[in-house]
Write a structure and sequence with these properties.
heterodimer, A: alpha+beta, OB fold (Dihydrolipoamide Acetyltransferase, E2P), six-stranded mixed β-sheet, 8 helices, 20 strands, elongated, B: MetI-like fold, 2 domains, 0% strand
């Protein structure tokens, strides 16, 4: 049980003088929370995690667990467990010895060790595999052994560095669900690093989006999805991603891609803006005065829904439609947008406009 | 359909691959010559050692005997020399393994200032001809009382091989992923114990190679033994050889049978070590080559 705080943490690697790997990161993770650090590769998320584990040291700022600074503590003295992307199982030990290794270090008796290892192994369905070496386990099994090794210690904090990225798609989705249930059950503070927005959305209590070492937005999955603070966050989250259209503000209305006139229910000071609108915030409607005609490029039926790609000016707009709606390429459809679900961004800075 | 040109082309290619029969015969002759050249000394050792009247050339023993083996132990105390060699080589190996593990790990993992200079400096030491250091080593050993001493021999033998072995071991450590020891640190181990319990077992092929090379080098070393040892009970095997060569006062009458018997006994441990560890050696050297 632990609260984790990053307080104005900066870390710069040697030979990377132009920018910091982690740039003035301030973050407060509540006890029992599952926080996801999300961002593209090189955004600093893994470095942030490794600093908490004690594998890297911050240049400035403080990192605290339960209000006590851990900067300067050896990894062994921090009581945090890390699940590595590559699992980092000890190749010369059986699955059982791998899981029991942290307990052996704590000088736990062999009987107690066996009891705990068996319990965690059962929890993760590893019962029959305990005598095998890692080389004789599948990727999914190795991943569960790595998870078991972290869980068996009952650490203050779980750290997970893209633990699902080496699994195939089906197993990844399955493990994701299990992992979330497990974290709820254990109620241990967890920091999870990923570049996969779907993984972040499904797992997280809150998501911290990082880019170039900076924290761009911290919020619940819903907040990030519906109220992104910048173009970067808007485009990073959601699949298919948010449609971004070049737009001008003229006399209280919005003109997207030079053709689509949209009502603007508020005052906006800028004239050149980027309009962000999610695929499900656009509806295909009957022809009418306030619906915009557009040409269909292609329809992508996905079973549960259809993504209709239409051409609007020079832009490609994705519209989420019901599964039976499948307009042919070249057909004309009419678009209607939900004004309440439009986000405007400054065309130059990319920041969301109030 | 296959055209005639294609068939001809294929035949030509096959000829290029296999060569003509003359080339094959020549190649085999060359190989045979090389093998004879390298095997001849061993054949001589084996035949002469069991020959009651051994000569300086290869021949089938005039009379098969074990007499030569008995005499090296009774007349020359060869057992003592073997024990001395085994002791010195064994402890040299232990010292090298410990020192090389620590130094190689540091060079592989730590962010040291001047790391590149240190790393290449180590290699530079290896290029220094040993004979150039003979006189200072003699003087130094005499000054600190390390002549005619096991400790002196062990220290100098361990030091001679150290630079090369450090480089070799650094390569092995480079091929062990860092996250393994990081996992051990997070599991609660200190850096030193993580090295001993996780990194070294994973790099065990490398340790095997280092141990083997260190033992064999110390086992075979002559020059330093000559300058550091003159007491007969401290003689290692190479000095015992020398003793047999000059047995008869003013005349150098070589007793080939005993020399050969000593040679066989000298080779046996080397062969045993090689065959016991050859898989480990090959695997280790291959992984080192990949790691470098």
């Amino acid at each position: 049980m632990a609260r984790v705080e990053y307080d104005d943490v900066t870390k710069q690697f040697l030979g990377q003088q132009d920018r910091a790997a982690v740039d003035h990161l301030t973050l407060d993770v509540a006890d029992g929370e599952l926080l996801v650090l999300l961002g593209p590769s090189g955004c600093g998320k893994t470095t942030a995690l490794r600093m908490l584990a004690g594998l890297e040291y911050p240049d400035s700022g403080d990192i605290r667990i339960d209000r006590r600074s851990v900067v300067g503590l050896e990894p062994k003295d921090r009581d945090v467990a890390l699940v590595f992307q590559s699992y980092a199982l000890y190749p010369h030990m059986s699955a059982k010895d791998n899981i029991g290794y942290p307990l052996k270090i704590k000088r736990m008796t062999e009987a107690e060790r066996d009891r705990r290892v068996t319990r965690v192994a059962e929890m993760l369905g590893l019962g029959t595999l305990l005598d095998r070496r890692p080389a004789r386990l599948s990727g999914g099994e190795q991943q569960r052994v790595a998870l078991a090794r972290a869980i068996v210690r009952e650490p203050r904090v779980f750290l997970m560095d893209e633990p699902l990225s080496n699994l195939d798609a089906k197993l990844r989705t399955h493990t994701r669900t299990e992992l979330k249930a497990l974290q709820r059950q254990l109620a241990t503070t967890t920091i999870f690093v990923t570049h996969d927005q779907a993984e972040a959305m499904t797992l997280a209590d809150r998501i911290a989006v990082l880019d170039r070492g900076r924290l761009l937005q911290l919020g619940t999955p819903d907040e990030l999805y519906n109220r992104p603070v910048s173009l970067f966050v808007a485009q990073f989250i959601g699949s298919p991603p948010m449609n971004i259209l070049a737009a001008q503000v003229r006399d209280g209305t919005l003109v997207a891609e030079g053709v689509w006139r949209l009502p603007l229910g508020r005052r906006v000071d800028a004239t050149e803006v980027s309009l962000g609108i999610r695929p499900e915030a656009i509806a295909l409607s009957e022809p009418s005065a306030d619906a915009q005609a557009a040409e269909v490029l292609v329809s992508e039926p996905l079973g549960s829904e259809t993504i209709v790609n239409v051409k609007l000016g020079n832009a490609l707009v994705k519209v989420r439609a019901a599964p039976h709606v499948r307009p042919d390429a070249g057909a004309t459809v009419h678009l209607r947008a939900d004004p309440a679900r439009m986000t405007l961004f400054d065309a130059k800075t990319g920041a969301a406009l109030p | 359909m296959t055209t005639r040109a294609q068939t001809a082309g294929r035949q030509a290619a096959a000829r290029r691959r296999e060569g003509t029969w003359i080339e094959a015969v020549l190649a085999h002759l060359v190989f045979a010559a090389v093998i004879v050249f390298f095997l001849a000394p061993f054949v001589w050792l084996l035949t002469a050692a069991f020959d009651a009247d051994a000569q300086a050339y290869i021949r089938w023993p005039s009379q098969l005997t074990l007499d030569n083996f008995v005499r090296v132990f009774t007349e020359h105390d060869f057992g003592r020399a073997l024990a001395n060699s085994a002791l010195v080589a064994g402890l040299t190996m232990l010292l090298d393994v410990v020192a090389v593990s620590l130094a190689g790990y540091s060079l592989s993992r730590m962010d040291l200032r001047f790391k590149s200079a240190i790393t290449y400096g180590v290699l530079l030491l290896q290029t220094m001809p040993l004979s150039a250091t003979m006189v200072p080593i003699y003087g130094l050993a005499r000054a600190v009382g390390l002549r005619n001493s096991y400790l002196g021999l062990i220290l100098i033998h361990a030091a001679i091989e150290l630079p090369f072995l450090i480089w070799l071991m650094k390569g092995f450590f480079d091929s062990v992923p860092r996250y393994l020891e990081e996992a051990a640190w997070l599991d609660g181990r200190s850096k030193l114990r993580a090295l001993v319990e996780v990194v070294l077992p994973v790099a065990r092929n490398g340790i095997g190679v280092v141990a083997g090379l260190s033992f064999l080098a110390a086992w075979a070393e002559v020059l330093m033994v000559i300058i550091l040892v003159d007491r007969q009970d401290m003689f290692t095997v190479p000095l015992a050889f020398y003793q047999v060569l000059r047995t008869r006062g003013g005349y150098t009458e070589v007793q080939y049978g005993m020399v050969a018997a000593m040679g066989v006994l000298y080779l046996v441990p080397v062969m045993v070590i090689f065959f016991a560890t050859r898989r480990m050696m090959v695997r280790g050297l291959l992984s080192s080559a990949r790691g470098l």
